[in-house]
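Hi support team,

I'm opening this ticket because the web form for multi-chain structure prediction keeps timing out on my end. I have pasted the exact lines I submitted so you can reproduce it. The total is 1152 residues across three entries, so I didn't expect it to be a heavy job. Is there a limit I'm missing, or should I split the entries? Thanks in advance, R.K.
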Amino acid sequence: MSHQPSAMSLVRFTLNGAVVDITAHPLKRLLDVLREECGLTGTKEGCGEGECGACTVLVNGEPVCACLVPFAHARDAEVLTIEGLHGDHPLQRAFVLEGGAQCGICTPGMILAALVLGENPPIEKLRAGLAGNLCRCTGYEAIYRSVATAWNDGDVAAKRRGAGAGA
Amino acid sequence: MSVVGHSVPRKDGAAKVGGTAKYVDDITMPGMLYGRTIRATIPSGRITSIRFDFDTTGFTIVDHRDIPGRNVVALIADDQPCLVEREVRHVAEAVVLLAHQDREKLLQANVVIEYQKTEPVFDPEFSPQVLKHLLIEKGKLSRGFAAADLVLEGVYRTGHQEHVYIEPNGFIAVPEPGGGITVHGSLQCPFYVHKALTHLLGLPDDQVRVIQTEPGGGFGGKEEYPSLIAGHAALLALKAHRPVKIVYDRAEDMWATTKRHPSIVRHRTGVKQNGKLVAMEVEVILDGGAYVTLSPVVLSRGCIHAAGPYRCNHIRIDGRAMFTNTNPNGAFRGFGAPQTEFAVEAHLDRIAEVLGMDPVRLRALNALKPGDTTATGQTLGSDCSALMVLKEAAKRSGWSRKRKAWKGTNRGIGLALFYHGSGFTGAGEVRLASKCSLATTADGVRILVASTEIGQGTRTMHAQIVADTLGVPYDLVEVAVPDTAGVPDSGPTVASRTCMVVGRILERCAQEMKAQLAGLDPAEHYRRHGPMIITKQYEPPPGIVWDEEHYVGDAYATYSWGCDVAEVALDPDTYEVKTTKMTLVHEFGRPIHPVLSRGQIEGGTAQGVGFATLEQVVMREGAMLNAQLTNYTIPTTLDTPRMDTIMLENHYPYGPFGAKGVGEIPMDGPAPAIVNAMRHLGLDVREVPAMPERLMAASRSLMANPATSRLP
Amino acid sequence: MRTAITPLQLLEPKTLVTALKMLRNDGPLTPLAGCTDLYVGLNFGTLPAKRYLDLSRLGPLRRIRMEAETLVIGATATYTDIIGSRHVRRRIPMLVSAAREVGGPQIQNRGTLGGNIANGSPAGDTLPVLAAAEAVVALESVDGLRKVPFTGFYTGYRTSVMRPDELIVAIEIPVIDGAQWFRKVGTRAAQAISKVVMAAVRASRPRVALGSVAATVVRLPRTEAALAGGAGMAEAQRVLMDEIHPIDDVRSTAEYRKQVSANLLARFWAETG
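Hello R.K., no limit was hit. The queue was backed up. Here is the completed structure from your submission:
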């Protein structure tokens, strides 16, 4: 059979709680679709090889590297990006206060990876759960402190709201 | 309410955690093209032909003939071309630039370059070309050695290190209607880029504008390199008459940009039987790479720190940076000092071993005290804290107990004592003559400086200094975006100078503004009298004397001090040495913002752990072979030890609120502390990164000896 | 440098039957599922293929189930699926250990067992486990199903007995008698590529498999025979070091790989004895 490049395809999925219809090449990276077609630039590219985790988003509640996901795989999925946390999630506030964010480029992915670990993860679970997210600024200690603070200090209502968006 | 000394929310925090902070790749402009750099693939030779093996319709193509000004990256020496004309001196040197509005078309464009190769030089020790030579002499070496009971020699080596800021380099250049250019990019030093562009483009100062976008990390890697990529984007934009964005992918960033200078440091040291250092002869060789870039100043800082924080009357430090056919090596946190302090600290533990002396005792005996002189003859004042950090680190880490209990096991504990000069070396700050401004606004005040926020907290820390000096709330102090058209040249964001030097100028601006406000709050003053702008210039602290020609005098206005204790465990099956814990005791004057300061120490330490044990740049034929994050491995959460961080205070009277520099010093200690911990468990290591492959032979003989092979 | 995407084609079958027909009639096609390896190739411009077959809609291919005494792991089961499966945990805990060491959580959520086999990297973390387990690869085409012992699957560096019109549909794990053992030695503590990876079973005839020491994952028949014959560990280690021929590469050295493999053999034996 002769080779015919794929046409743009229309894919319906849920993005940060809202159903969206997006048209793009089915093999375009989800990362690029989020940043370009959806205009959500909070998801960052650090390596393009699934090592750094800066492009972490949640697909159906699980963290994945958006640089390694073809757009076709977003079909019918629930995708959560950092924008879906609206800036007031306890993790977000704690990352500001405790120094979990320095240059900020790993921060959106780091927060989403931390989100799925639940409330008050034990330190070893936290370290293993964040092992797919590289940070070159903090040495990670401030990130551990941020996660610990998030769940022990903060407005419970906001916490529930944010956790709901992540589920 | 006072904010200095308190960890207020960082100014850029909400934007960063919310994902709304704009990094260069997050920005697009109407009509924007994408740029791509075609690079040389050989380390040394001449270009014989360039062929465009694609349909060039719709492409903007730039080579050296399109450069309107001088084909140089203006910095210290103007030897590095922006685009290769004929001679190639290193792999990945930029030759041709392409731009197209369709990134996919750009990716498919194939440019074939043919070369006539010449013999490259990769080993700095065998390079025929000296890039920079310098000599530091104190006392008379022969007299020192004559008094020695023991002379110990050693050679210590460190490798390349890649910065791995998580955001690769990137710029957008926008042509302006009058023929000028504006560039937006990820950078540390707006005025370095500004200077480079005026030379390259032959434009007057006011036709070039440089604006910082949020940088996703720098660590020195965005100190000098941005001048090159900004130049490339600008050349394409001027030719295309459209905005052009160049953002590197990770592989290109690792393959093409600067690294930490590899070093070879030779020590020959005379000591008395009681442990007193009487003669230190040090030879420093740095691999400079293919062009001068910043190597002379990296060599300078490296050499000044090469004798360590120790008292010795007879010192000779001979330093050379050599040309080789690799990418120019460049600025990286610590700027030469991590290399030379690794060597002296590893050497000191060998001396301790030979003398049968505890490493803490050897250091306590020789550590610099107020009134002592450094290698350059600088007499230290009461802001010298070497003994303070050493004693606290030994106590806090349980040094004596662990040192004894772990003897002969697969665990080890080691330490390093180190210092780091704050600000530019020697007369550097006087020459820079940095300026800062403070302006009243309708809401409060605005800080105008060229110092960039690269994650370390510049905006926040500067705002704290101004808020407290002026007596206004922190929230009413805003910080202007570094934009060469709108801020004065407060110098580059490097050399642990942003708080101590720039912060001090800002403090003086605020003091004067306070006097002029005469009790009014700034917003009220603005309403009544219109904007008030106070500008101040750097003034050296009193009594600083530096002889540049002989390298004698006050090399730095002050120093910060640190002692790191590393605890390690050797895996007998894999020869991996895992650093399990680090105790970090640092003294850097007053921490303006404890959370941010601690972040500098812990983050720098993690980079140091990588430098010591994980991060190996594999070079083949002058090119980085492992230019991807899969194979150049920086520490993950599970590779990074837990850290116990202690910040001691010994205020520096000429820093803002007593502050010194903290940005770089954390990089100096981890490698020697870890290697010294390896020595404690029986491994003689003199080179980093100490990869398991390098430790195998020593580990095997260690474990073959039953006396030392028991596991706890 | 990244691969341009627009010239590429993706076929998206909804059933296995359609997928197999596409492979037969529309080939050559490169199947994709978790994309954790394939997209690295695309992003680095090292993947020459232009046409791809998406397996993500073939739901049944992701199931993990018991068929009598045989554990059947669907080809597109992810590492996270494997870690979470009680069947896998009970039958082949060494596969769970291996799955936990593949990349970070993001990679485990997407990467698949079938992909690890199809990719065929000699450093694939799960491959020594499958070799030591004497797993069977179920290959399907429009002609039907055929089963290939995993130890006979690879013919060389990234080449196998699989035909271009075949698809890996499942991996079958027989009952394993004896203690299982797994150890990965990577370039760092997490998110690492293996420098040496060993899986072993302490059965009456011990089984030892190694990754990253040859062009493919290997079993060590001579070492196994030495162990079965009651050789001392020093002797078994000598046999092992003679049996493998690793190379120097960007991640490690031949010498290191040999010595560490021998050390791991001793550790396996000591911990399962």
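A quick check on our side: Residues 156-167 of chain A have pLDDT under 50 and may be disordered. Let us know if the file doesn't open in your viewer.
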